[in-house]
Here is the input.
Amino acid sequence: MNNRIENLLTLLIKNKMRKNIVAGNWKMNKTLQEGIALAKELNEALANEKPNCDVIICTPFIHLASVTPLVDAAKIGVGAENCADKESGAYTGEVSAAMVASTGAKYVILGHSERRAYYGETVEILKDKVKLALANGLTPIFCIGEVLEEREANKQNEVVAAQLASVFDLSAEDFSKIVLAYEPVWAIGTGKTASPAQAQEIHAFIRSAVAEKYGKEIADNTSILYGGSCKPSNAKELFSNPDVDGGLIGGAALKVSDFKGIIDLFEMKAYIYNDEKGDNITVTDDLGDMADQAAEYRTELIEKICELDDDLMMQYLEGEEPSVDDMKKVLRKATCECQAIPVCCGTAYRNKGCLLYTSD
Ligand code: PGA
Here is the structure.
């Protein structure tokens, strides 16, 4: 197989292993009636779409049982924003992981900085919460992140490493079920965001810490979300970083147009083309004046795809250009049935800057 295509496919397969996720955190917003309306509106907005990422909404406890049956479970997962660190019993006002799961919810945010700061949640308490969530079949979305003074003192890596202790005593099997969310506290609800470079740097650090503890494969499979004033206008740049696998969205999750705008970033149309020398495969979401160049190298790209399949190659050698559908099939096969990355005629869909080529 041609090296360039091989590298691209490897990248695709690798990226496919971990999920892209856009998760909403409603926090203490919305009455039950307002929450139901918001969930319905989101469900309708996604009714005729196939999001190219997992979509999750984490709601206040009292909304869960009403919201869960309202949304299409194949497209929208529902989660809580917290759960108790005890299994059951005399803990007035608490809600257990089992109770959350009994509503049909599948996720739970744990370790959010607001819980840590206002409700005294420690590394040890969070260890118990994570274990109970997992024991009850919930996927924890485990949040970590530094406050401003820690960032200013350049202590962010140290801080997140210490917070990871709550999940680093899990077995490898259990750890591989969790989702991490890096949320710099100074960026939450403040309108400030980490720059894409800052986000990438610390996400890569977090992934390396996971790799050190659980090995590279598990680290490569772990989704690490970014959170903190994420909105459609800045999410694109943040998500295009190789170690940023989506977002945990607060304020922008309360408005369907904003939340959907963020989800849609994973379905952005984009193109892949060979460069002038044919040495590199280039990826862009805006061909601009490269359109001519892309057209020029179209033939070469079609050849590369034909190289992946004998029948296609035969057809090509006989002077017949394979249909886009046939090329799609071959690409799908070559990328391990990559349903997560829909291929469409004329364009390719972006998966974190990784593209699957199609013709036109
Ligand atoms: P924000 O919140 O998007 O409103 O900053 C994110 C979060 O706290 O999860």
Q: What stands out?
A: Confidence is low (pLDDT under 50) at residues 7-16, 268-285, 335-360. Residues 25, 183, 188-189, 227-230, 248-252 surround 2-phosphoglycolic acid (CB under 6 Å). Residues 196-214 form the longest helix (19 residues). The chain is about 45% helix and 15% strand.
